[in-house]
Known about the structure:
By secondary structure, the protein is an alpha/beta fold. 41% of the residues lie in helices and 20% in strands. It contains 7 helices and 11 strands. A hairpin with a 2-residue loop joins β4 and β5. The N terminus is likely disordered.
Amino acid sequence: MEQKKAVREKRALVIGGPSGVGESTITQAIIAAHPTFARLISATTRPPQERDGRKEKHGVDYYFFTEKRFLAEIKKGNMLEWQNTRSGIYYGTYKPELDKKFQAGYCVIINPDIVGARYFKKYYNATTIFLMPESVEALRKRQLIRKPDISEDELEKRLQYASYEIEHESPFYDHIVLNEDGKLDVTLKTVEKILDKEKYPL
């Protein structure tokens, strides 16, 4: 997976963090306040899930591909970066989606894992922002609100991985922003200051 030429202008923005920290909420808030931005829709082999009282939709929340289709897209060169998670589910950046957003003139916000964050920083000159929870316990509460039927075993696995991300992956990011419960406006203003400093078109 190599590109011939890295992009230098500020057209891509990475917002990441542990599951449940609020990267989707912050992404939506940026887009609502600044129509120059759009969210990148990633591809996955997991089935659609219930989210916020509705079932996820193909081409809106994710591109939901079978594993066979996902692997075929890799062979065609349509997955810029991807990984197979511990659970056997593939996630990746679908190139036709990224090209479509860029051609429409948007700055694109990506919510990837550390693999994707490194990729977009290297090849697309992306500024990378890691959203930090006030505590792992706060993440526990958010996960339970988001998915009340989550098993204790799955919850503990997610929190252990979140602790790993906070300790080992957050130092890679250009900026670390605290995202406290009930303080969305404060987080958004902090991110906007970073975008202004990094010369994104607001």
